[in-house]
Design goal:
This protein has seven helices and eleven strands. Strands 3-2-1-4-5-11-10 form a seven-stranded mixed β-sheet, sandwiched between helices. It has a four-stranded antiparallel β-sheet with strand order 6-7-8-9.
Length: 246
């Protein structure tokens, strides 16, 4: 049964436009080229496949892509786009797959929608079990930027301003649990949308430790899909994990 309050159900009707405005559609070719290196003509599982923004062009390059998403609406949009991808409704924090994949991947900080440390570790364990012996897990996460939050519990920041759109982010910070509960206010023309979101942010060092708990070790880390260096100025990272050596 669909959860009408879930991230996917709320965002599904406007997700393509939203990701276009945020610049995610424009970087799809770089994203897919990066991912294809690890599963060329092989198999891949996307966690939080959504409307297929990444999965569809990856499948068009000959990769057998499957996916999981908790949103019925997102999966319906995906099904209308292609019949080449097998996808099912499920919780990316706790899933089982009989199939073994060359690559499991999770992009656009979808991993942080798992709202507890326990759920995030469970996701990493499920992903590790779904990999074949030489398989990799690829995660795209934003680098937490908490400067406006250090002195207080609430903040309002501008996420995007252009000729047609203004996106404001109003956030409540729970530092003890590393939780951010946000409301995006998207002003576009004469319309206003209110988009709630809850995340548990993760620093890359903690992610590495959680991955080790799941039997994974860091193989590579990049600052973007073009394989730019990950530095103190990076706003995100692309992390590639493999099974720990025996």
């Amino acid at each position: 049964m669909c959860d009408k309050l879930s991230y996917g159900e709320i965002y599904a009707p406007i997700y393509e436009k939203y990701t276009t405005v945020q610049g995610k559609v424009a970087e799809v070719d770089e994203t897919v080229a990066f991912l294809e290196r690890y599963c060329s003509r092989g198999s891949a599982l996307e966690l939080g496949i959504g409307d297929g923004r990444v999965a569809v062009p990856l499948s068009e390059r000959g990769v057998k892509v499957e996916g999981i998403d908790n949103s019925c609406s997102m999966l319906q949009i995906l099904a209308k786009r292609t019949d080449l991808i097998k996808a099912w409704q499920g919780d990316i924090g706790h899933f089982k797959s009989e199939q073994r994949y060359n690559m499991v991947y999770c992009v656009y900080s979808t991993f942080t929608l798992l709202f507890t440390r326990e759920a995030q570790i469970a996701c990493l364990r499920s992903a590790a079990e779904a990999l074949d012996h030489e398989g990799v897990l690829v995660l795209e996460l934003g680098v937490p930027s908490l400067d406006p939050l250090v002195g207080g519990q609430k903040t309002t920041t501008a996420r995007l301003v252009d000729d047609e759109n203004t996106i404001l982010n109003v956030t409540v910070h729970d530092p003890l649990n590393q939780n951010l509960v946000s409301t995006l206010l998207w002003f576009s023309g004469t319309s206003v949308r209110r988009l709630p979101q809850r995340v548990r942010y993760v620093y890359h060092q903690e992610l590495d430790t959680m991955a080790e708990c799941a039997g994974l070790e860091l193989a590579e880390r990049w600052g973007d899909w073009a394989r730019g260096a990950f530095t103190e100025r990076s706003e995100r990272h692309i992390s590639v994990y493999r099974r720990c050596s025996p």
